[in-house]
């Protein structure tokens, strides 16, 4: 597994960036670069389960490993989801099990630096290197809108 790191400066307070990242409507917009109609199901509390899903029911079964509102969130991916069903965590085909995805927001004088890190299986590294910056560009765009 490879850890990928991305960073972007956003001319908006971190509370606004946080809202763009995790509120349902804007989440769907910036994650659309990974797949149209992508969404998340969760109560968004630390320790809770979260399902990252496509409209066809494929995605990732994860937990919110750590959360500090407006500052930091870490997801631990447990297993894949196929046709809306969690795949067994102990399945040897679960390449993503234990992968982490984190978002850190720091603000200085109204400028928020968003740092995202994600563990990726090798076959998706190039895809995420190209696609993830496009997603963060959308977060920037929506965060900087009045």
From TrEMBL:
It comes from the Bacteria. Signal peptide: none annotated. Transmembrane segments: none annotated. Residues 11-119 form the Activator of Hsp90 ATPase homologue 1/2-like C-terminal domain. InterPro entries: ASHA1/2-like_C, START-like_dom_sf. Pfam families: AHSA1. Gene3D superfamilies: 3.30.530.20. Belongs to the AHA1 family. This is Activator of Hsp90 ATPase homolog 1-like protein. It comes from Flavobacterium xinjiangense.
